[in-house]
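Protein record

Derive tokens from sequence
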Amino acid sequence: MKISKLVLSLVILISFAPSLLFAGVFLGASQGMESTTLEVGILGRRAEQHLAFSLPTINGSVEEYWKAPVLGASVSVRSLRFQPLVLSGGIKSQISWESTKGYILGLGGALALSYEFIGKGGVFFLEGSYLPWVTTQGTLSTNLGEKQLKQYMRLGYRRAF
């Protein structure tokens, strides 16, 4: 069993590593149905990785913004077949927490359609995600974190450097 996990890890690393060696860094902002997200990541020709931080700006009040923040990560494979339109799909995970009360963790997939401004470094994107595996630890005083994990559409802009 350990050997098969090692082989699978090496295959994934060998598949993504060449693409990410020549990748560029990007910063982005997006708006979902429940939250506003700031993200940073690596954008290569065949793969991309994101690290995102979200606050519940739609249904939450200003006092609740910091009550249920969300940290998320995703790894996607990109298809450049329809340039300047790019399709990408991969795995996504998100976690929302309250300081001492508990957290909610979700894992699933994401698909994105993006329009890349060739040579300009700008990317408009529409992302759809579904996190079917959700677990909660502890008791949460608000459902803002759960709502953010269950939002399934985001529209945003990324600036590649």
In short: The mean pLDDT is 84.
